[in-house]
Amino acid sequence: MAVFRRIARSDGVTGFLCWCAARYIRLVWLTGRWRIEANGDAARLMDEEAPLIACFWHGRMLVLPNLWRRRTARTSVLVSQHRDGIFLSRIVARLGIGTVAGSTSRGAAAALLGIVRALRRGESIGITPDGPRGPLMRAAPGAAIAAKMSGAPILPVTYGARSRIVASSWDRFVIPLPFTSGIIRMGDPIYVPGDADDAALAAASRHLETVLIGMTEDVDRELGVDPVLRTDENAAPAEENSP
Questions:
Q1: 219-233 burial, b if ≥16 CB within 10 A, otherwise e?
Q2: CA-CA-CA-CA dihedral for 147, 149, 152, 157, to nearest 10
Q3: Any long-range contacts for 83-92 (C-beta under 8 Å, 24+ apart)?
Q4: In terms of Cα–Cα distance, which of 192, 231, 176 is closest to 53?
């Protein structure tokens, strides 16, 4: 077992696995029939290349780098500083997406500063408000804090796939299969005032959570698959891929 662990940690093996993952993400996108849905305000933000904070559940991130590739403005995703985050950063780098390192437990202040600076430069940031370790579909307040400090809107984003594998991991990670049909949906932007107090930040986080849960369940049902539902065991406070 020690030999296999050493092999898995080698740069060569990691690089190959990241290459395979990036190629699979592109394969699913290019062979699939993906419908992108955005209302007027969300479509305007995307068309204007305006800086925004895209928020999506940890289990619904796999195909979204393809969406950000459609924009000319730089987009980065927040990744944790442990091994999974490093692995993710190498995958998205192969897809032309940048990263900001940090989470609530490690590098939170530096991550928040990096996010705000990037947004003020006109870049966009992707955040998983229930990552990197959950609980499932519980939004921690980092995205709302970043929106308050930067003035950038939060854009709820999710996707569903008709043909998929749902992992047994805590995030119920959804892996679309090649040649599937799917929906990527963007909700109404959420704005957080610069003078928002703790109560307002908590309310914005609850609203984001409610919207993302509803959107995710809706796209699953519209595609004829069982929604991935949050259960009572997911009720503990979230640690997220955001400060």
A1: bbeebebeebebeee
A2: -20
A3: 84/132, 85/132, 85/241, 87/14, 87/17, 87/18, 90/14, 90/15, 90/18, 91/18, 91/21, 91/22, 91/25, 92/22, 92/65
A4: 192
| Cα–Cα dist 61/84, whole Å | 14
Instruction: Give 175-208 pLDDT, tens digit per residue.
Output: 999 999 999 999 999 999 999 999 999 999 999 9
Give the DSSP H or E segment for 57.
Answer: none
pLDDT in tens, 35-74: 999 988 999 998 888 899 999 999 999 999 998 877 777 8
Q: Which of 78, 35, 34, 45 is nearest to 188 (CA)?
A: 45
Classify the phi-psi angles of 217: left when phi > 0, otherwise alpha if psi is within -120 to 50, otherwise beta: alpha
